[in-house]
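[READ THE FOLD]
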Amino acid sequence: MALVVQDRTFLDVLGAEARKDLLRISAERTFRTDEHLLLEQDDSSHVLVLLEGWAVVSTATDRSSARLILALRRRGELVGEMAALGGIARSASVTALGPVRALVVPGARFRAFAGRDPEVSALLMAQLVSRLRTADEERRTLASLTVIQRVAGRLLELEELQRAASGSAGTGDTGGTGDAFPVLAQFAQHDLADAVGATREAVAKSLRLLRTAGVVRTRPRRIELIDHDALRLLAAGGNIGFPAP
């Protein structure tokens, strides 16, 4: 399972001259928590590059008012490029998980930017391949793992994101205070449900089973991972013995 695809972002690998060019053709904008950066099925073509904050990429599902979280995007990442390059409607919505600052590039300018710089074209192609591969892996995960197995994998992934963002070894705590990794402070139980393609009730039951088995501890907006071996076993498709209710 993977909410974040790349170790290095678009801005991380963009050369100095290309960065200058990108700044020249873009304008900076800020977004409030829960504000839409992009809307699914919208016919706009602009591209955004995140400078600060985290955003969630999601798509509507057949369940009424439900969504499926496809990915998290962080500082340095590009969103909206498929509509700009392909001339198609937006395939997903992008929403700010907290305050977000981003560069906004008009679609025509972005296409020209990518077309005149082979480095940018190659980078976009590599990013597209990586994201498509991750999407395939996610589909297999949704089809083959149970809800509790998917929850276990997602919790481990969120903890790893916290560790990477804080630059520390971590303590096994995925709740956070919002200082080191704001996403986790704002990643509510319904977000976790959306991130594993399950109902809130199914995720609540999974967390209750994990808590009863001593695998996690839960508090409001805070989940502490206690038994990482058990979580890894579940995430790999295995099972552990849960105590009788």
Q: What stands out?
A: Residues 10-142 form a domain with the Jelly Rolls fold (CATH 2.60.120.10). Residues 168-183 have pLDDT under 50 and may be disordered.
